Queue: 2 jobs
Job 1
Amino acid sequence: MPWESFGRTVQSAIYRAGAFGHRPEVPTDGTQLEEAARKVMSRRGFAYVAGSAGSEVSAAANVAAFDRWQVVPRMLVDTTERDTAVELFGRRHESPFLLAPVGVLSMAHEDADLAVAHAAREQSVTQIISTQASVPMEDIARTLAGSGHWYQLYWSSNDDLVESLVSRAEACGSDALVVTLDTACLGWRPRDLDLGHLPFARGEGIAQYTSDPVFRRLVAERVAAGSPEPRPRPTPAAVATLLSMSRNHPGDLRRNLTAPEPRAAVETFLDVFSRPSLTWDDLPRLRALTRLPIVLKGILHPDDARRAVEAGVDGIYVSNHGGRQVDRSFAALEALPGVVEAVRSSGSSMPVIFDSGIRCGADAFVALALGATAVGIGRPHVYGLALAGAEGVSEVLRNLRAELDLQLALTGCTSLVDLTPERLVRVG
Ligand code: FNR
């Protein structure tokens, strides 16, 4: 398929199928997509994905921020041939989309991260594998079969574990290491709190840990020291949790049901998950651990961006975690121009990745015009996953790629280089 016709080809295929009575199973509109996913997901699953911090106004602000920018189309430009490719850390990407790291995908679909990997490969979009994934990174990398991925690190309080996760990421072929800085602890999330539901406490989303030799050693030591965890009363809820922990733990289910390791693994995870004491002074240690490009995720202030450049990192990722961490946070898009200005005026050409609030191709257009090098797709791909597994994720990505391509064609742009702030006006 010639690249220049990508958007039209996708659009025509949808209309052609429609002529024979087939409507897309995965809605092309972001709001409809979320609503369709809500209908097929469990209450807990949807709350975990759609929910955000406190009053949830940060998440709403992320989306609303795009309405303050409008696109100014230019006419009589030959846009027959369009190119949405971008190069990141030595690899050519067909489009500026990345799959943002999202944990506990098993809450959306049983094929979880492997389904996302199939779609990532099909759509030539780089998957950022989460430290809270439902599947060990090596299995995801195998499914990706060399098509490129990055690894997202939550910096554990245990140094040996950090070292082990980083060396596994290198060994399984990650192109970059994304260090998420905004999760010194989990945000206050009323939807999950009101359901009393934390997936990790049920053994979900800790596959990177239970597959890790250092973590397994910590669990073994905990078990050998005699389990300090009190045995809960065998209520139906407690039995369901034990079953969930045992299913999610490696090894034989029947053995896991009576063994101490699944519960000890959950407790160990809760102990080592994050390192609230992390500061800029810790970065040189990470630099010494790996030759992979380091990207700092969660940067929102120009001074932090300047500091990151000085610290010698290789990329910056502007994000407020989809509004899941800080309540009443300003929109990530509001932070983007200041961070880009700080990075570029420091003389750095490093990539500035953006996520939080992108729901359509035009949103990507705006973020790229404001200086983002590439954009992460978070919740929309999870909704596609919930609706139709790998094909659902593929459809979400295909639609975004097609929409961005058509947006270029209709605004007189032939490549991402054309996307500059002059393409936009700010209203309000
Ligand atoms: C996330 N995000 C996230 N980020 C990260 O660095 N590691 C992680 O494990 C997760 N897990 C996670 C789970 C769920 C359910 C969501 C919705 C998000 C944040 C993610 O990478 C991204 O920053 C946001 O999803 C962007 O916001 P929108 O566009 O999805 O609203």
Job 2
Amino acid sequence: MASLDTATLSAWIRRFRDSISEKRDWLTELDSAIGDADHGANMSRGMDAVIAKIDSGVPDTVDDLLKTVGMTLVSSVGGASGPLYGTLFLRMGMVAGPATELDAAALGAALRGGLDGIVARGKAEAGDKTMFDAMAPAVDAFDAALTAGADLEAATAAAAQAAAVGRDATEPLVARKGRASYLGERSAGHLDPGAASTTLLFETLAQAVAEPS
Ligand code: ADP
Ligand code: MG
């Protein structure tokens, strides 16, 4: 696959929803350790709403599709993660523009724009124990793979791997952003729920590219 069309992008979004539903209890468990035990419910409510929207018709352009995902997440998820994931998709859509497909470089630019949007909104920095700690290494790994000559499949696989490493590295950290930061030192010793769901986002992207339906 040389580029992602709207059908492949919507297959990614669908895989992400399925993965979130499957891991819903685990995400909730992670959030019960350092938050308010709603991350699984938040993400699964949001992604179910996204799929209901897409089921009524997949938009024709990449930006309309990604903006629909973003707006639905912002309007259906009350927690911190709704506006943050919503911003990711809205910004990805803005960067992608009214194209009908994204090649590897365009996907990289969209992901970078989405990450920048999350930072603009939530002000997270590396090591704050947030979704940033999985997403930033994933986007960096994607770019580095492309620079090294990798194709879309290899670059998305590298991104997924980097996200998982970033997620695992949140375990010993003391949270400095979001609800988990209220716990101070007691937030150490647990994975960050948002970094866990972000890893699912990149794993399902790699799967959608590797096994197009
Ligand atoms: P809430 O914290 O409102 O209950 P969720 O439980 O759905 O929302 O999401 C919590 C996740 O949101 C955290 O695990 C963290 O990854 C992410 N998060 C919280 N605040 C920020 C922030 N300022 N920047 C980036 N990510 C954040
Ligand atoms: Mg929560």
